[in-house]
Amino acid sequence: MPSTAAEVVILGAGIAGCALAYHLASRHVGPVVVYDPRTPGAGATGRAAGIVTEQLWSRWDVDVTRESKAQYAALSARWDPSAYTVNGFVRWAHGPEAQAALGAATDRLRSWGVSIEEIAPDRLRERVPWGRFEDAARAVWSPQDAVVTPSTIGEIYAEGARRAGADFRLGTPMESFARSAGAWELGTGAARVRAGSAVVAAGAWSKAILAAIGHPLPLAPYRTQAAVLRPPLGPEVFPSVHDIDEDVYARPEAKGRILAGDGTRLVEVDPDTFRTGADESFVAHLAETFGRRFPGWADAELVRAWAGVCTSTPDRRPLVGPVPGAEGLYAIGGFNGFGVMRAGGVAARLAELLASGGSGPAALERLRPVLPGRFAGTPAPFAPRPGFTLDAGDDPRY
Ligand SMILES: Cc1cc2nc3c(=O)[nH]c(=O)nc-3n(C[C@H](O)[C@H](O)[C@H](O)COP(=O)(O)OP(=O)(O)OC[C@H]3O[C@@H](n4cnc5c(N)ncnc54)[C@H](O)[C@@H]3O)c2cc1C
């Protein structure tokens, strides 16, 4: 059986795995192999909405997302300008609790240098002319936020990684993955890869892969839904919008269409057996909210609707870095529904760590808030709590 020696083997060719391969190959760390039993974009990346916002929970998260955004802007400008558009993000609240949380979040975001403006609710229609906002009490606008086409960004990273020498092995089932004789060994049909370091970047599948090798991390895959609609009329580009109380969001899509979502189900699912079609109740709720909130879109035609699987963690922060107690093993995932906007930034930081031999203090520090080592011992079951959060991070340093 042919065996390939690699420096790093990456399990998973979603946006996180492809971005990591790109950054590792660009750093010339040695041979990089990316393995996926499916194809790039087969997981959550191919089903994501692609909103990229700086309205996040901590200074660290804002920095990482800015780094992603800079990478996506540069790569799209070079390879596919349609994959990245700066359109801004408007959010509003009507309930008293959401209003207070939005006010506090706005102050925090400003203190981290995020460009964010309060908009008087009666002026919301200047940004979102097809909406109805009589009950909105507080609203904000972050003009530098963007939308991307996630699968295209993933493909651009994969192509860049290939050009820099990374080897992609796609479309064959995984037969074995284990530590043996001082290396990680991956067996896929007729081939073997042996690597000093392995990175589990398998999205919702990471939980089972890590558990099977005896290094479980607290991850909970959950199902979330989105739809594309075609409104009778409307601008080609508009700001992404989020109604905080209804938890409904929408962004512009190509050809004058709208991509909208709200359908997160807070129960754990199996990424191999989840229902990939959208629920009737999701489509009905979207239609009802659109009719009430966006009368200009009330007659929008449903083009398609679907579900994908994201991965939650107990504290809603990603898991990126060395897996505790497992030599040469790393994880990148647990994005709690926001992996597109974080992937480029965290992948660059993880590549820096791997290039430093896995223990560079500066590289570890740049991943500190998301290192898997913050969870000790056997993970206890927990309920997923993802979504656009208005919470603050707990650690004031980050
Ligand atoms: C409806 C919806 C809307 C979303 N909207 C947004 C948004 O607006 N903004 C945002 O930032 N994020 C959004 N997300 C979240 C985002 O899609 C994910 O966080 C991100 O795509 C995760 O990327 P990933 O590479 O970690 O995982 P994935 O894209 O899931 O990739 C994992 C890959 O691992 C592979 N794999 C499985 N088993 C194995 C194995 N044994 N070995 C190797 N590989 C394996 C899979 O085939 C898959 O290709 C949304 C998600 C959904 C579903």
Write the CATH homologous superfamily of the domain at 3-46 and 151-219 and 314-374.
Answer: FAD/NAD(P)-binding domain
Q: How helical, in percent, are the residues?
A: 25-40%
CATH fold naming of the domain at 3-46 and 151-219 and 314-374: FAD/NAD(P)-binding domain
Largest sheet: 8 strands, mixed
> Would you count the extended β strands for me?
19
What structural class do the secondary elements suggest?
Answer: alpha+beta
Beta-strand percentage?
25-35%
Second-tier CATH architecture of the domain at 3-46 and 151-219 and 314-374: 3-Layer(bba) Sandwich
Shape: globular
Rg calc: 21 Å
Total count of helical runs of at least 4 residues: 9
Q: Average pLDDT, to the nearest integer? A: 91
Order of helices and strands: EHEEHEEHEHEEHEEEEHEEEEHEEEHH
What is this structure, in a nutshell?
The protein has helices spanning 15-26, 59-79, 96-111, 124-127, 150-163, 206-212, 280-293, 339-355, 361-366; strands at 3-11, 32-36, 51-52, 84-86, 89-93, 117-119, 138-142, 146-148, 167-170, 176-180, 183-188, 191-200, 220-230, 240-243, 248-252, 258-261, 301-312, 319-322, 329-333. The chain has 398 residues and is an alpha+beta fold.
